[in-house]
Amino acid sequence: MLDIETFDNTRGGNVVYKALAHPLAARALAELAARAGRVALVDPDGIAPALLALCPALRVAGVYVQDVHAVGRPCGGQTAYALTELPRALADTVLIAAFDAARVAERLQRFLPAGAALLTLDAARLPQDWLTVPQRYLEPKNFATNFVFFRDDDHAATRLTTANYWAGYGAQGVRFQHILFGEDGAVLAEWETPAPQGPGGYVLDSQDVRTRFGLGPFTGQLFIHAIGVAGHDVVKYALDTYATDGGTLLSCTHDANAWPSMCFAGLPAPRADERVVLWVQNSHAVPIPAGALALDRMGAQAPVAIAEEIAPFATRAVDVADLFPGLHWPAQLEFLAGRHVVRPRYEVTRAGRTRIAHVNVERADLRPDPGIASLPEEMGRGFLLPFPVLPRARFRTLMLPTPMAETEDNTPLRLDVFDAKGGQLASHYMGLLPRGHEGALDLDEILPADALQAGGHAELVYDFREGGAANGWLHALFRFEDKASGHAAESSFGAHIFNTLMVYKNEPQSYTGKPPGLSTRLFLKLGFGGRESFCVLIYPASAPWVAQSSTDLELYDAVGTLLEKTHLAIACSGSALVSPAAHFSASALNAAGTGGYVLIRDTTCRLFGFHGLDDGQGGFSLDHMFGF
């Protein structure tokens, strides 16, 4: 396990972690370690454990602290000394583990060991032109970064799509810096691209990158850093994976979630005729030791280690069947990642068709919350996990609840199903599911044959009729299968309280503001290469809300020009299947081009959505949308 702090839901993201783990900072730290000799590490802010985890090349002669309660305690694999001992350190260099540390350095000058040089972590700062707020280094907006699974191998390509959503918050001159790592972790290319000046779309296709830099086939990861941002310090994107050899591959996934985690869950075991590969991508400039990562059958507490070292920033394919032969769907696994990787992708191959999806963060900080079982009536049905039921004339929809907290021993669940107009069609009690359950549900088993032929949605909710515990972090995996072609897509997400005036802890959440200021701002990419985009918009409501949404669909081009705007009304507890071609003129869509997008805006309620592509030949993709 890496001794780092990344993200928690109380304090948010740890900017110090991003400042130390950034690939450019990692290079600078390696150079610092090479020239510093024996280092006396002064740790005024508690950074030493993370620094030594991410830069193990430092030759530490001792760690020195100011807090008298920390003296003698472990600190980054060392025993902490009192700062008063610093003059007697046997060190070539005193390194102050702090940024913007000129004042601290000035005060320590007269306490240095004889002949020792003095450095601070300012020696590992990013270049000035990479900073959004240069005057305050540990500012979250200076580290608007993310990783991207990026592949181009003569059979498949990847395509990142996002928008300069920061322009809507007043940002000007936004730029993207890119570092592309190959499968072995070596840097394949580095470049900068300006974002549109306005809220335009941004597309990055692996085929274009490969041509631009003369690259051979690669499977690796792209590090992307946005500069000049405002409003948001996260790079959000949709990622399409598609065939370039005439094959059937077509998948989309959500952004990678920029924070490494201890555990991830929601990895499905393969069917007997499937192969499931977990793509493990090292997010740091230090190797992942052999045996530091493992998979475990959910609930078994019998992890199987990945017995291979993974180089810095390298990518490895781990076949689930190699570690768990004979384990099949609907069994599921958790990935014990030790904070070495951000949210990984997995790839499923069946009958010549391939799909890619992502696992989700399994939280270590959650405990069962008894208040959820006794929510007041003002909160209605409380936590809801909405997902599409695609038109049943063409698709099967399956759902597998996935435990997403380390302390989640059981989950009491019910499934409510709604038509597009908000009418409830079915309510199915799933039971008090143990952690290691294999309770996948095919919605064809609970719905009349003629129901939802044109689609609708379902909501997974807590149901305590047989007792059980809840933590609010309710998740599930959703699998959608084309009945004719056999093509499949899958997605996963978690529950929220939706569209209520009352608040329970931090719910309901919104993209901006608090209740009753709930609103929607969702991104829908446009199609490319003969593939048409679509989305399913769901209007979930934990308690009665406005009878119909007041939803605007706004079509933008790649430079941020609003081309057309149209209106949509969705019934409360209803849904809508939306295709841009059905709502905008052909001339406007042509003007938008493949770099354009649709902004789904609603100031009356919070909508939830899933988006994808349809190739018109039985292939499609689907994953949840992102908002900003």
Task: Give a quick set of tags describing it.
single chain; 628 residues; mainly beta; Rossmann fold; 3 domains; six-stranded mixed β-sheet; five-stranded antiparallel β-sheet; 42 strands; 38% strand
Describe what you observe in this structure:
This protein is mainly beta and 628 residues long. It has three domains: 122 residues, Rossmann fold, CATH 3.40.50.720; 220 residues; 255 residues, no CATH class. Helix content is 10%, strand content 38%. The chain is built from nine helices and 42 strands. It has a six-stranded mixed sheet, covered by helices on one side. The longest helix has 14 residues.
Short note summarizing the structure:
The chain is mainly β and 628 residues long.
Question: Structural class, judged by helices and strands?
Answer: mainly beta
Number of domains: 3
Number of strands: 42
Question: What is the overall shape?
Answer: globular
Query: What distance separates the N and C termini?
Result: 33 Å
Q: Describe the largest sheet.
A: 6 strands, mixed
Low-pLDDT sequence parts: none
- In percent, how helical is the residue content? under 10%
Task: Set out the fold topology.
Blueprint: E1 7-8, E2 12-13, H1 15-21, H2 23-36, E3 38-42, H3 48-54, E4 59-65, E5 74-75, E6 78-82, E7 93-96, H4 102-108, E8 117-120, E9 144-152, E10 156-163, E11 175-181, E12 187-194, E13 201-205, H5 206-213, E14 218-227, E15 238-243, E16 250-254, E17 263-268, E18 274-281, E19 294-297, E20 304-305, E21 315-319, H6 320-323, E22 332-336, E23 345-350, E24 353-358, E25 360-362, H7 370-373, E26 383-389, E27 395-401, E28 410-419, E29 424-434, E30 441-442, E31 456-462, E32 475-482, E33 488-494, E34 496-497, E35 520-525, E36 532-538, E37 551-556, E38 562-568, E39 575-578, H8 580-583, H9 586-592, E40 597-602, E41 608-614, E42 623-624
Parallel strand pairs: 3-4, 3-7, 4-6, 7-8
Antiparallel strand pairs: 1-2, 5-6, 9-14, 10-13, 10-15, 11-12, 11-14, 15-16, 17-22, 17-25, 18-21, 18-23, 19-20, 19-22, 23-24, 26-31, 26-34, 27-30, 27-32, 28-29, 28-31, 32-33, 35-40, 36-39, 36-41, 37-38, 37-40, 41-42
